[in-house]
Amino acid sequence: MKQITRICWLLLGVVFIFSGLVKLNDPVGTALKLEEYFEVFSQDIGSFFHVFIPHSRTLSIFLSSLEVVLGVAVLLRWMLRQVLLTLLGLLIFFGFLTFYSAAFNKVTDCGCFGDFIKLTPWTSFAKDMFLLLLWAVVFLNQRYLRRVFAKGTLGVMYITIASAVAIGIGVRALGHLPYFDFLPYKVGNDIGKLMKPQEPAKYQYVMERNGESKTFTEYPTDSTWKYKSMEVLNPLTSKPVITDFSVFDADGKDHTAEILTGNKLVLVVQDVTSADRDRYKEINELLETAAKSKKPLTPLVITSSSPAAFDSYRHDVNLAAPYYFADATVLKSMIRSNPGLILLQNGVVKGKYHYHDIPTQGELENEL
């Protein structure tokens, strides 16, 4: 039991650190997931959950950093009993979220490991139950974990450092872009290619005759077999990775193919109500010089705001470029910056830039 307890202790600490770091890699994505939960709870439980939506980014960094710090504390065995009781509160909270999502089909991805690992609601709930089992083994057998690796002032110092590092990682990612991009629109990806299936769908058919069931990879021509069920054998590769990328103008005319052809410098303005306005002097200068680039480079804007709202916004910031419209969720997946810049070459993402990291014309040309 001593060895089992130590294995569970190690797994518990490592999983919490890993989970927190993955979320801190993309705190904006974690915040969007929290907003999704708050929206659902405000509809199903009480409207007061709307109060948390404006603070979702702060909560994102706080909760993610807390996971890292608690994981470090577990591994150091610092104030182990108190830390384990705090972990229990988090596990119950996360368990409630994942069970609610699974049972009522409210949020299809819990965001437990960010966009790095996608989990179905029931898989997420099973993961939380597994962690709860690890917690129970460790909590009930603390006598096997008496050696503390950091006591007193040294322990406080380690926990303070862990807190500062975790928060620092999250704050920097919040003010720039994720360190690692796991989204379909990451640099190097071909958007047009990802809008098509990698291969045709393959099926297997379960047929029945005289009480006997048999599986076929091709639909049988023998009419004595009766259809029972069908399953797709390659669900991941037979469906496009990107299914909702569509760009259109104010009249509803589709411009998707045009956007994915040639060199484009795309300014993504997700929502004009929350978009930063302080960097438009640099942005406008870049869009102007892009149009005069040595390499053909067409600047344009894509937004999810209404035509009327965006028209007012572009006049406020002196934004002079052709503009188009797309779904808000798509734009949030394209870049974690509002506004943000994406460099495309025939639909291939060559660069992504936060509004705090506006590139020079030379940097753009070097990417093409």
Automatic annotation (TrEMBL):
GO CC, one annotated term: membrane
InterPro entries: Methylamine_util_MauE
Top-rank taxon, per record: Bacteria
Transmembrane segments: 58-76, 83-102, 122-140, 152-174
Compartments, record wording: Membrane
Topology relative to the membrane: Multi-pass membrane protein
Record's keyword annotation contains Transmembrane: yes
Keywords assigned: Membrane, Transmembrane, Transmembrane helix
GO biological process entries: methylamine metabolic process
Domain Methylamine utilisation protein MauE: 1-139
Keyword Membrane part of the UniProt annotation: yes
NCBIfam families linked to this entry: BT_3928_fam
UniProt protein name: Methylamine utilisation protein MauE domain-containing protein
